[in-house]
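User: Reviewer 2 asked us to show a designed sequence for the structure in our supplementary figure. I'm pasting the C-alpha cells here. Could you produce the per-position amino acids so we can include them in the response letter?
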C-alpha cells in the first residue's frame, strides 16, 4: 500500500510511517510531495494521504485534538503495550503548546528539528528516525502503559 504526505517530515510524519510499517503494513511505501500537490498525486498513485491538518476531511490526519499518530492507533485499533505512552510523547512533540504533556517530547522534537537542520531528505529522515522510534517504543514498553 502507498501512503503520501507533505514533504519535510518532522515528528508526526516520521512517527506515522514507523507505526504503519511496524504494526499495519510492513511493505508500505511512503511518498512525500509539496502540500499543494499531495491530493493530486495521491489520486494518481492510489496512495492514502495522511497528516494533512489543512484537510480535515481526510481520515488519517489531525482530528479532535489528536495528532495523526494517535488517529492511526485508534482507527487500526492498535493495543500493543507501550503504544499509549509513545502516542502521548509523539502528541506532545508534534502539537505546539502541548509539550508539557510528556517530558520526553522535548528530546523527540529536538531530534526532528535536527534532521530538518541537516537538510536530510524525507527518505533519510525515515531511515534515521525508525531506529529512534523503535528504541523509544522499547523504552515505553518497559515503562508500561
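Assistant: Here is a per-position design you can include in the supplement:
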Amino acid at each position: 500500500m502507498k501512503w503520501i504526505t507533505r514533504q519535510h517530515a518532522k515528528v508526526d510524519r516520521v512517527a506515522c510511517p514507523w507505526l504503519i510499517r511496524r504494526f499495519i503494513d510492513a511493505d508500505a511505501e511512503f511518498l512525500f510531495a509539496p502540500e499543494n500537490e499531495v491530493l493530486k498525486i495521491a489520486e494518481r498513485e492510489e496512495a492514502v494521504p495522511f497528516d494533512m491538518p489543512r484537510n480535515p476531511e481526510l481520515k488519517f490526519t489531525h482530528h479532535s485534538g489528536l495528532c495523526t499518530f494517535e488517529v492511526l492507533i485508534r482507527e487500526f485499533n492498535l493495543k500493543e503495550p507501550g503504544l499509549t505512552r509513545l502516542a502521548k510523547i509523539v502528541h506532545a512533540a508534534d502539537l505546539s503548546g502541548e509539550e508539557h504533556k510528556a517530558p520526553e517530547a522535548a528530546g523527540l522534537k529536538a531530534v526532528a528539528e535536527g534532521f530538518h537542520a541537516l537538510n536530510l531528505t524525507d527518505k533519510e529522515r525515515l531511515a534515521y528516525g525508525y531506529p529512534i522510534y523503535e528504541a523509544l517504543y522499547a523504552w515505553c514498553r518497559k515503562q508500561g502503559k
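For the response letter, you might also mention the following. The mean pLDDT is 96. The two ends are 30 Å apart (CA to CA).
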